[in-house]
Amino acid sequence: MLLVPLATGAIVVARSGVNAGALALFVIATLALFWLRTPVEAWLGLSPIKAQTKEERGAVLRLIVLLCAVSLASLGLLVATGYTRGLVLIGSIAALAFVAQEMVKKLGRSGRMPAQIVGAIGLTSTAAGAYYVASGRLGVTAIMLWMANWLFAVNQIHFVQVRIRGSKLITPSEKMTRGKWFLVAQIALIAVLALSVAYRALPLLTLLAFLPALWRGLAWFLRPTQPLDVHKLGLSELKLAIVFGALLSAAFLL
């Protein structure tokens, strides 16, 4: 959800020329900020894995300081070269999404999937960010790349939750009962994509990029139940994300 959107944003700019230096700084800052979250949560005691002893807290704090320095230095160079307005806008939306995610998490189990969906807004913002720093433009293309990647992320999150919660379902009727809202979401996704293409917000070939994910979701209702292998499920969704990213990039380039 972080790297595939980032790659699509960078690849789509290739047609008109890429500011490689700015893009490299953005990638460094993005990865540093992403890696920063886990040690901060561990140091503050907000995650299952906590820094408990004095030595552990010291080691985690040193890592936090290092990652902060790397991210601030990279962002500082980008701001110094004129990327302030766009980065502030994208960063503010992403930060609000992560704050909202933490609030939704407090709902407990019922808020798990909504929290992931809200958090995906922040993760997929790398599509708009990469396009912006590589091209110097924050326009419709950047926003549509962000939206398309977020819609795909929402589909993945929902499907994984359905697969986990429906791992013991056998008959199609049981699957339909458990996964009816996922099916509704699939139909809603098709409608959103169709309208976006009709109003020329997204290229027509964007539909092709979503086709594997839509088929994967429908096939689950039709095929016989298989034992749930979480590792295998994760790898298949990773492969699907890479295929989506490649097809989405091609849709915007052609």
Outline the structure in words.
With 254 residues, the protein is mostly helical. The protein has helices at residues 3-12, 20-44, 54-80, 84-105, 112-123, 125-135, 140-165, 172-198, 206-222, 230-253. Helix 2 packs antiparallel against helix 3 and helix 2 packs antiparallel against helix 6. The longest helix is centred in the N-terminal third of the chain and has 27 residues, at 54-80. The protein has ten helices and no strands. The protein has two domains: 1-138, no CATH class; 139-254.
Order of SSEs, N→C?
A: HHHHHHHHHH
First CA to last CA: what distance?
Answer: 24 Å
Number of domains: 2
Sum up the overall morphology in one term. globular
- Per DSSP, what share of the residues sits in E-state strands of 2 or more residues? under 5%
Which regions have little confidence, pLDDT < 50, spanning 5+ residues? Answer: none
Overall mean pLDDT score?
92
Q: How many β strands by DSSP?
A: 0
How would a crystallographer describe the biggest sheet? none
Structural class: mainly alpha
Q: Give the helix tally.
A: 10
Percentage of residues assigned to helices: over 70%
